[in-house]
């Protein structure tokens, strides 16, 4: 099918149609997500954790995000793709933010970028949107600030925190963001923010009241994700076990001379060829 647009995403909220978002980081994950009918692919800087093996997202670079986004684009040519701006690719100055967001758009062919922050980055969001770059916001638990926050903690427990989340979300909407991710916030906070915005909220660990949901590819597939089990993740397959056992069988076959068999080899002239032709 045809890729969504920011206009269609906002219409999905008005129509009450839930928006499905999944992360992907390379050609096969993107291809499978598109074939499965996902609405939006996020090339998240969570690739730092689940693909590159870092403890946090802070070491992820703009070059990393561009490299992975290009592969995702090749795998999912008809899906709306959003790429995270990594730590330090924004918040320096609006000019730097625009230059970096512009590089992502120009060098990868994705349709939008995402930034962590609220009212404090509204000016940078506005600068990108005016230049024609759609921006998704991201508030609540913002992993690039994990050291400032002091851990991966649920946000929006006190009334004052809920009020601040609403103000941040409204500032992003005002600045022209087309959607806002709500990460690890209470049900009540997500409900209040979702009701007060005309743009969709995309929840992760944000309860049942968001306009869409996002989860991490490696988490829902249990694909060697380094994370402990998380309350907000539902797992749909156990690829880690499947892959580990498959590789184990391959190793045993090689050690036991069970693989290769004659059908896996190539016959010379005048000899009978078995098996599939290469
Ligand atoms: O990097 C990421 O995967 C994200 C989602 C969890 C929203 O930002
Ligand atoms: Na992210």
UniProtKB/TrEMBL annotation:
3-methyl-2-oxobutanoate binds at residues 45-46, 84, 114. Keywords: Cytoplasm, Magnesium, Metal-binding, Pantothenate biosynthesis, Transferase. Its EC number is 2.1.2.11. Mg(2+) binds at residues 45, 84, 116. The keyword Transcription does not apply. Transmembrane segments: none annotated. The keyword Cytoplasm applies. It is found in: Cytoplasm. Its main location: cytoplasm. It catalyses: (6R)-5,10-methylene-5,6,7,8-tetrahydrofolate + 3-methyl-2-oxobutanoate + H2O = 2-dehydropantoate + (6S)-5,6,7,8-tetrahydrofolate. Its cofactor is Mg(2+). InterPro entries: Pantoate_hydroxy_MeTrfase, Pyrv/PenolPyrv_kinase-like_dom, Pyrv_kinase-like_dom_sf. PANTHER family: 3-METHYL-2-OXOBUTANOATE HYDROXYMETHYLTRANSFERASE. Belongs to the PanB family. This is 3-methyl-2-oxobutanoate hydroxymethyltransferase. The lineage of its organism: Bacteria, Bacillati, Bacillota, Bacilli, Bacillales.
């Amino acid at each position: 099918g045809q890729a969504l647009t920011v206009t269609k995403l906002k219409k999905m909220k008005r129509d009450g149609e839930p928006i499905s978002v999944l992360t992907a980081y390379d050609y096969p994950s993107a291809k499978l997500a598109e074939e499965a009918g996902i609405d939006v692919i996020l090339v998240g800087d969570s690739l730092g954790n689940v693909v590159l093996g870092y403890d946090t997202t802070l070491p992820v670079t703009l070059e990393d995000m561009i490299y992975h986004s290009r592969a995702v684009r090749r795998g999912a040519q008809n899906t709306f793709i959003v790429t995270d701006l990594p730590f330090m690719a924004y918040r320096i100055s609006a000019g730097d933010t625009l230059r970096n967001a512009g590089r992502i758009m120009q060098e990868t062919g994705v349709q939008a970028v995402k930034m962590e922050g609220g009212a404090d980055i509204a000016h940078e969001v506005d600068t990108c949107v005016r230049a024609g770059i759609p921006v998704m916001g991201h508030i609540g638990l913002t992993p690039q600030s994990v050291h400032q926050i002091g851990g991966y903690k649920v946000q929006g427990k006190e009334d004052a925190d809920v009020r601040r989340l609403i103000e941040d979300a409204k500032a992003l909407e005002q600045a022209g963001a087309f959607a806002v991710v709500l990460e690890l916030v209470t049900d009540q906070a997500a409900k209040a923010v979702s009701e007060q915005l005309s743009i969709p909220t995309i929840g992760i660990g944000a309860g049942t009241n968001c306009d869409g949901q996002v989860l991490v590819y490696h988490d829902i597939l249990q694909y060697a994700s380094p994370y402990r089990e998380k309350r907000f993740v539902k797992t749909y397959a156990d690829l880690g076990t499947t892959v580990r056992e498959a590789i184990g069988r391959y190793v045993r076959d090689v050690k036991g001379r069970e693989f290769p068999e004659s059908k896996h080899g190539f016959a010379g002239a005048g000899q009978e060829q078995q098996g599939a032709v290469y």
